[in-house]
C-alpha cells in the first residue's frame, strides 16, 4: 500500500472512531425513562429532534467512511463513483470519503445524478 493511501486510511479510521463516539453520546442523551413535566418534555423533544437530525448526518457520514475504507482495501480508492476519473488529491485531502469528483458532486447537488445507495 502506498504511503499516501496509508495516511488516508489512518485518517478515515480516526474520523470513524470520532463519529462512533458521538453517536454513542447521542444515544445516552435521548433517554426517556424519567417522568417529564410538559415544558421539560417540549424542550427535550426539541433537542431530541435536533439530536436525531445530527445522528442522521453522522450515520450517513459513517457509511461513506466505511465505503471509502472498503475502496482503500480493494485498491479502488480515489476514483469517482460516477465517471471513474481520478478525484484530485486536493479534494481528497479536504474530504477523504468523497465518492465523486468535483464535477459529478455538482451534478449530485443539482439533483442531476442518482446516487447509488
Ligand atoms: Zn466524476
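^ C-alpha cells above, recovered residues below v
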Amino acid at each position: 500500500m502506498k504511503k499516501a493511501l496509508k495516511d488516508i486510511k489512518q485518517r478515515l479510521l480516526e474520523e470513524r472512531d470520532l463519529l462512533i463516539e458521538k453517536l454513542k453520546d447521542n444515544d445516552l442523551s435521548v433517554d426517556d425513562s424519567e417522568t417529564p413535566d410538559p415544558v421539560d418534555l417540549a424542550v427535550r423533544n426539541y433537542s431530541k429532534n435536533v439530536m436525531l437530525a445530527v445522528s442522521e448526518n453522522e450515520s450517513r457520514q459513517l457509511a461513506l467512511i466505511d465505503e471509502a475504507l472498503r475502496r482503500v482495501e480493494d485498491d479502488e480508492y480515489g476514483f469517482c463513483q460516477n465517471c471513474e476519473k481520478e478525484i484530485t488529491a486536493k479534494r481528497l485531502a479536504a474530504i477523504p470519503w468523497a465518492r465523486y469528483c468535483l464535477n459529478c458532486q455538482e451534478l449530485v447537488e443539482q439533483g442531476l445524478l442518482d446516487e447509488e445507495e
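The mean pLDDT is 87.
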